[in-house]
Amino acid sequence: MAKRSPEKLLTLFESNQVVEFKDIQGALGNASRATCFRYLQQVPYHRSYNANGRYYTRKDPSRYDRFGLFSYGAILFSRDNTLGETIRRLVWESEAGWTQRELQDVLRVRVQVVLLHTCPSGSHAWIEVSEAL
Length: 133
Hints:
By secondary structure, this protein is of the alpha+beta class. The chain has helices spanning 6-15, 21-27, 33-40, 83-93, 100-107, 112-118, and strands at 19-20, 45-47, 55-58, 69-72, 75-78. The protein has two domains: 1-62; 82-133. It is 38% helix and 13% strand. A three-stranded antiparallel beta sheet has the order 1-3-2. Strand 4 and strand 5 form a beta hairpin.
């Protein structure tokens, strides 16, 4: 068995813009899920915020647009990793707030459920969710 190392993951990420978990397992010699996650902690990566987090990419700030988003076809990534954290940051950085529709258009996914869990009740001072959910 070939020696496992974080460098194998770095090589995988350098040769592919986006990979799936099975690719990570393969690069680590068909390692278990736990082993893969242990090695992933040692390399800079992001998980997709859509497709159930199925895809991985290396962290590369130059890929991300002004909203901190990167897309590879229909696969979407955020510099904040999760959809909830991305929404929090976008709202926090905004001068005028966002409507649910605006967030949905920018993030290219449905945001209603995440908004309900991300934005506490009574927080309308910092986000406008005036459209019918």
